[in-house]
């Protein structure tokens, strides 16, 4: 039977899943409360939400948000990591968190309508940040212009030297 509290949770997370750029499902078995608190703080600082929901309620919220691809992965102990800005930020935080030893086990990642398994999700953490990618793109776009300007300047310098040489010969 649906209680008002459960209905409110489903409604709240339906909206959150609609707004999310990425949703990570992870198994948090074996992590103590203090460690989870530290992890939550790292996520919060990065604008990412970490939440443990009952699979049944999460499934309803995800389906209401139009995401049915995660249904088969909602088994066992599941935590939800919801990224609202940069979809790769949670992957970087999880990678850093798991450096000493793997404590948070990724199940899958839902990103831009696609489901990525654990191996593919770990590769996301190695992607450069948005700012780095933009600067690389800007550099790639700027490079031909710089080369063109250098070539034109070199040609002008040659012309000036040639005219100077002609001038010296005429004197």
From TrEMBL:
Part of the ribosomal stalk of the 50S ribosomal subunit. The N-terminus interacts with L11 and the large rRNA to form the base of the stalk. The C-terminus forms an elongated spine to which L12 dimers bind in a sequential fashion forming a multimeric L10(L12)X complex. HAMAP family: Ribosomal_uL10 (MF_00362). GO terms for biological process: translation. It comes from the Bacteria. Pfam families: Ribosomal_L10. Belongs to the universal ribosomal protein uL10 family. The keyword Nucleotide-binding does not apply. Gene3D superfamilies: 3.30.70.1730, 6.10.250.290. Keywords: Ribonucleoprotein, Ribosomal protein, RNA-binding, rRNA-binding. GO terms for molecular function: large ribosomal subunit rRNA binding. It comes from Caldithrix abyssi. GO terms for cellular component: ribonucleoprotein complex; ribosome. Forms part of the ribosomal stalk, playing a central role in the interaction of the ribosome with GTP-bound translation factors. This is Large ribosomal subunit protein uL10. InterPro entries: Ribosomal_uL10 (IPR001790), Ribosomal_uL10-like_sf (IPR043141), Ribosomal_uL10_bac (IPR022973), Ribosomal_uL10_bac_type (IPR047865).
């Amino acid at each position: 039977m649906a209680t008002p509290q459960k209905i409110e949770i489903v409604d709240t997370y339906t909206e959150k899943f609609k707004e999310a750029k990425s949703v990570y499902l992870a198994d948090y078995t074996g992590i103590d409360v203090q460690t989870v608190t530290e992890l939550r703080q790292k996520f919060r600082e990065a604008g990412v939400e970490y939440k443990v929901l009952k699979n049944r309620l999460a499934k309803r919220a995800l389906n209401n948000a139009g995401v049915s691809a995660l249904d088969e992965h909602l088994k066992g102990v599941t935590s939800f990591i919801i990224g609202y800005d940069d979809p790769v930020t949670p992957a970087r935080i999880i990678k850093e968190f798991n450096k000493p030893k793997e404590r948070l086990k990724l199940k899958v990642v839902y990103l831009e309508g696609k489901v990525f398994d654990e191996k593919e999700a770990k590769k996301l953490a190695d992607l450069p940040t948005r700012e780095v990618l933009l600067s690389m793109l800007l550099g790639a776009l700027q490079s031909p212009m710089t080369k063109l300007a250098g070539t034109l300047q070199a040609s002008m310098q040659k012309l000036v030297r040639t005219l100077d040489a002609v001038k010296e010969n005429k004197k």
